[in-house]
Amino acid sequence: MFRALASVLLCCFFLEASFWVHFSYGDLTTCSGIVPMTERGDKISITDFGGVGDGQTLNTIAFRKAIYRIQHLRRRGGTLLFVPSGVYLTDSFNLTSHMTLYLARGAVIKATQDTSNWPLIAPLPSYGRGRECPGGRYMSFIHGDGLEDVVITGENGTIDGQGDIWWNMWRQRTLQFTRPSLVELVNSRGMVISNVIFRNSPFWNIHPVYCSDVVIRYVTIVAPPDSPNTDGIDPDSSSNVCIEDSFISTGDDLVAVKSGWDEYGIAYGRPSSYITVRRVTGSTPFAGVAVGSETSGGVENVLAENINLYNSGVGVHIKTNIGRGGVIKNITVSELFMENVRTGIKVAGDTGDHPDNNFNPNALPYVKDLTLKNIWGVNVQRAGWLHGIENATFTGICLSNVTLQGTTGPRPPSWNCNAIRGAAIEVSPRPCAELASVEQSGSCASHS
Predict the structure, then answer these.
(1) Is 369 one of the annotated active-site residues of the chain?
(2) How many Å is the Cα radius of gyration of the chain?
(3) What is the pLDDT of residue 437?
(4) pLDDT tens-digit readout, 99-108
(5) Beta 86-90 vs 99-103: how paired, if at all?
(6) Which of 149, 160, 252, 369 is catalytic?
(7) Three-state SS for 153?
(8) Where in the chain are the domains?
(9) In 80-219, alpha helices (H)
(10) What's the CATH number of domain 82-446, 2.160.20.10, 3.40.228.10, 3.40.50.2000, 3.30.980.40?
(11) What's the pLDDT at 268?
(12) pLDDT confidence band for 131 (50 / 70 / 90)
């Protein structure tokens, strides 16, 4: 309990500090301008619709009435729904276009733990089934489909998924359908999520899928390290996504870029592209920055920079598998610091399961043009594990100015490589032979 509270306090401090630094000096690079914050002239409060923040009253009807009002009155410029300080227990609910969900300081929107009435929705077409179980899936706690111009923000209020009941169902193998995400936005554009704490998601935390023009910044995302599949932010078959200035500490990947699963993702054919991840700090038993493993629609033009990781499994993880198909290309990770990490860099062509037995074993993924530069690690157990796929060698893997120091002991962290080709400049410890040293300074981004 104390550790969880301490984590939240640390997260809030980080967010407020990064907000202050950015707006005081105004010299930090940002991609947040792709979606300007909307000022709403019309403002309503959840209490106007019977909302009670006592932590016990069920507020589902209040939220649905308020959002119905926003949707049907269609005020010019949209409407801000204000949630004052208090704990508002509710079932899942849908957002609507041209609205701001604003959580005041001390406001908590808390998910009910009554799973029996949780809505079911169809599987995503690029997945073909639920990610965990065949058939449909539970709707996310806060959901949106086919929306535009939606903001979730406030004064570091909290959205609490109370996920432990779902985690136990997963552990006990009693799930009938795939668990709900905390926030999922589908087929939507012009979305901003900022200055909110996300806690204890049942499954993935923030999942924009088939979306464009999405900004996620100044958020805190926390869940216990043993909470299963609680990814932080998963841009999925989405474009123009900006993730900045956030703290994430969860039980799975902090940020994972995805684009569909095997034959379903190949058929849907929507890549993830132009994803920026910048100034993110956190810890996880899995990966800090990940691409995959569901990449069948393709992933391209991803930039992750100024990342700080500690007590984590993998620093950077590019992961795919036979049957995925798709192309992963133009991925750049730079200015990454990691401490107490099992594996610094992992690129793997044998990771992740399959939705069914109908995947095509000849659908090989192609991975090329990965640039990993200005990376520093201390207490790293293994420098790198880079294994491509026979007959689909991963190419253009370029390491530049990478130093990974091991734990105390006589042997430095090692590299292990197979079916990859690339270059290495100023890399310590000495990389594997497949990364032939290039005797020149500067970028190796042009290496093929």
Answers:
(1) no
(2) 22
(3) 56
(4) 999 999 999 9
(5) unpaired
(6) 252
(7) strand
(8) 82-446
(9) 164-172
(10) 2.160.20.10
(11) 98
(12) very high
